[in-house]
Write a structure and sequence with these properties.
By secondary structure, this protein is mainly beta. It is built from five helices and 30 strands. This is Lipoprotein.
Length: 423
């Protein structure tokens, strides 16, 4: 506001110090040029005027709305902020904390296969998203208390969800044919529309810069979306092929990389043109991989499920696929989900793998951490306000968080960004 007021006073002063030339709208001394320029600055119009383009100062990442952090023009500031936090490092070794002693069974009525995925919301809460639970659960990170926020049909009707504009979470239909949205501001659940679909339809989704929520294909080959601007459901003309995708990863170029599970290739949706391409590299299918995450250096780390090898896709090098290394004592159904922490490390969320582990987003070093307290334990997690990771309990039957001991933290706009606050 102060910047615009200063500029306004300067322009008024300039206009009174020149002899106006109203006959030429592109004469910098004309009243018309100055008034048009002032208006365009006030409305942040970035189009060209008389061969000149206004490039207003970049807004710092933490002053953006979370709905603006994934716009391509804001990536420079977001990247700088995230890397600033990375540089602060860690204060010590990670710890696993049971932050609320109530069991999941006591809280929601079932202690087995209760949740899959978690999201942070603008109200500060963390939301555990249902798998077999009939409840969406809100966690208050300050008090560590929980609240039963809404009732859902249950029975794997949904897998994951996506935070869209204004604090609304869009649940991804899995065995349910109805698209739902959950308003975190008042804890109301509402249906959007119903479509006849095949079983196990979608796994999570991605909030794209064009205002659309794209659902990640599982049993369905059609990429469907919900347009948050028009309030309508639509679909992309080109389908995916080859099997199930488990996760979607957004890049600053507005592209979504669908991570293959039983499919063998990554499919890429360009949300500008809504065209679909593939990366030729074969990930083998056979439920080898389960998740992926974007890092500020342009990499998408691919998280194993049944495979032993960790890869990343270098989006800055023609989508070259790089072998990072192998998971120590690899087994089956190892991980489900991954979270980027403010210390610059990735934390795959253990399902049946015996340990937690970290992957350094710069060096790709894989490090074993503490033991996983149970089998089939967690599916997904989300970063908290001080760098802790709230784990989404599947069979764990307990409320746990992973304290990453990050010295830095992500401000709300970055923490809620569609790049990282996702299933």
């Amino acid at each position: 506001m102060l910047r615009n007021l200063t500029l306004f006073i300067f322009v008024i002063f300039l206009s009174h110090c020149t002899n106006g030339n109203i006959s030429n709208n592109c004469d910098v001394g004309s009243d018309t040029f100055l008034s048009t320029l002032l208006f365009r600055i006030s409305v942040q119009d970035k189009s060209y005027q008389c061969g000149y383009k206004i490039n207003p100062p970049k807004i710092p990442a933490c002053s953006l709305k979370y709905e603006e952090t994934h716009l391509p023009e804001n990536w420079t500031q977001v990247k700088q902020e995230v890397e600033t936090q990375f540089a602060l490092g860690s204060s010590g070794s990670e710890t696993l904390v049971q932050y609320n002693l109530t069991s999941i069974a006591t809280a929601v009525g079932t202690g087995t296969t209760a949740f899959q995925g978690a999201l942070s919301a603008p109200n500060g809460n963390v939301y555990l998203l249902p798998y077999n639970s009939t409840k969406i659960v809100a966690i208050n990170p300050k008090t560590k208390n929980y609240e039963l926020a809404a009732t859902v049909p249950g029975a794997v009707d949904f897998i994951g969800g996506t935070l869209g504009p204004s604090g609304i979470i869009y649940l991804s239909p899995h065995t349910n044919n109805t698209f739902y949205k959950f308003d975190t501001s008042n804890h109301t659940l509402a249906s959007i529309t119903s479509i006849s679909m095949g079983g196990a339809a979608y796994n999570g989704g991605v909030f794209a810069p064009n205002g659309k929520i794209y659902y990640v294909p599982s049993g369905e080959t059609t990429i469907r979306y919900y347009n948050t601007i028009t309030g309508t459901i639509g679909s992309v003309a080109t389908p995916v092929s080859g099997g199930i995708f488990a996760n979607g990863v957004l890049t600053p170029e507005g592209k979504i990389y669908f991570i293959p599970h039983t499919a063998t290739n990554i499919h890429i949706l360009d949300t500008v043109t809504e065209s679909v391409t593939t990366i030729p590299f074969s990930f083998g299918g056979a439920a080898n991989y389960i998740s992926g995450i974007y890092t500020p250096n342009g990499r998408i780390y691919i998280i194993p499920y049944n495979a032993s090898t960790v890869y990343y896709v270098d989006t800055k090098d023609n989508n070259n696929v790089v072998n990072v290394g192998t998971i120590p004592s690899a087994s089956s159904a190892m991980f489900n989900g991954v979270v980027l922490a403010p210390n610059g490390k990735l934390y795959p969320i253990p399902l049946n793998y015996a340990n937690f582990l970290s992957i350094d987003s710069n060096s790709s070093e894989i490090k074993l951490l503490m033991a996983n307290p149970s089998s089939n334990s967690y599916r997904g997690g989300v970063i908290g306000q001080t760098g802790e990771i709230y784990l989404s309990p599947h069979n764990a039957n307990r409320f746990d968080l992973l304290d990453t001991k990050s010295n830095g933290s992500f401000c709300d706009s970055v923490r809620l960004s569609p790049y990282w606050n996702k299933f």
